[in-house]
Amino acid sequence: xxxxxxxxxxxxxxxxxxxxxxxxxxxxxxxxxxxxxxxxxxxxxxxxxxxxxxxxxxxxxxxxxxxxxxxxxxxxxxxxxxxxxxxxxxxxxxxxxxxxxxxxxxxxxxxxxxxxxxxxxxxxxxxxxxxxxxxxxxxxxxxxxxxxxxxxxxxxxxxxxxxxxxxxxxxxxxxxxxxxxxxxxxxxxxxxxxxxxxxxxxxxxxxxxxxxxxxxxxxxxxxxxxxxxxxx
Length: 232
Prior knowledge:
4 helices, mainly beta
């Protein structure tokens, strides 16, 4: 029998913070969710150079195993051709929605054969702090996503864009097929990523950030990537 995973987070609202135990009944990763079709097309072409097939619709939604969600600061992979990517994530339960920053770590070699399989291979890395969506709704487009990647001794800005460049939460949830989802169940929905600054980088670690310039605060989260030897 499937046992739902529970995330232990800190919810930080305008009126203070509180502990949040969030049960993950469903994990969905969206893709091709850019609001700007020109930037979206650039990301499609970026991945097409790696042999990753173009999507048949916008956005797409992939149903993954809830146990993949983690707030750990280190994950393991089996290939040196994997990479993370910054995106916002919605944690939905009943009428409540919380927002945080996440990375949909992906195996890029497997992605040329099956996008869902490449997503299923690795953890979905979430920050352990979240904001109520109700605090963000009136200035959502002004929030900023950033990701820095560390490769060897070099750390560089990998991604940066305002959330005005992505599909907003109401539209993303409206597009999501809800058959089989109960309102009271916990849904973790990763939004899909933003374009990179200069192509994909297979990093040793990733630093993620969501900035709220209106309320003058940030959610920051970092994780390392450890490549496991496939045979011992």
